[in-house]
Design goal:
Blueprint lengths: L1 H41 L6 H59 L4 H11 L4 H8 L3 H15 L4 H32 L2
Helix pairs in contact: 1-2, 2-6, 3-5, 4-5
Length: 190
């Protein structure tokens, strides 16, 4: 997760640097055009055709540079919004999935301790790690896990995890379709 944040920060910094470069170049070229135009008009008012063509090409290049600057900034803003929408969706999925898990634990009539241990087990913690967190012996955790398996009808942690993964994938698929539409709309707005 930290690595992802570093990459996002680097991408943002790169986009900001590119925008700054485009802005500076556009300003320098614009000043150059104004200066050349001023010099040409000051020296006699008659501007050779080749100089007019040169200034028009430079002016067109500056306009295109600023158009690129505008489009890139708009795309950056839209991508930021889509990223924030995805983060909200992920937070919602996590919250909703926790609700699904806890509701199922209630259906199985798990005690508070059994629910905690089952949840920690689903999150991938080893029995020894769960025991250390709960300041109890590994045997106690094994006994409570056995009770979870008996009440749920599963025989292994893998079966228990698989049961909830099916729910998560089904739930996420429905939410992904909604987020895909949001992301597509954000991309289309560019």
């Amino acid at each position: 997760m930290t690595r992802d944040l570093g990459v996002k920060r680097a991408d943002s910094q790169t986009m900001i640097a590119l925008a700054a470069i485009q802005g500076i170049c556009g300003t320098v070229f614009g000043v150059d055009i104004l200066y050349e135009t001023h010099v040409e008009w000051r020296e006699g008012g008659h501007v050779p055709t080749i100089e007019i063509v040169h200034l028009v090409v430079e002016l067109l290049a500056v306009c295109l540079l600023y158009c690129g600057f505008y489009i890139a900034n708009k795309a950056f803003v839209n991508l930021r919004k889509a990223e924030q929408d995805q983060a909200k969706l992920l937070g919602s999925l996590r919250g909703q999935f926790d609700t699904i898990i806890m509701a199922q634990f209630e259906k199985w009539h798990l005690s508070k301790s059994e629910s905690d241990i089952a949840l920690l087990s689903l999150r991938g913690l080893k029995i020894s790690e769960i025991a250390a967190m709960r300041e109890t012996k590994s045997g106690t955790i094994k006994g409570q896990l056995h009770s979870v398996f008996r009440k749920s009808g599963f025989h292994t942690r893998t079966e228990l995890l698989g049961y909830f993964m099916d729910d998560l994938l089904d739930f996420a698929a429905g939410a992904h379709n909604k987020s895909y539409v949001t992301t597509t709309k954000a991309s289309a707005a560019i």
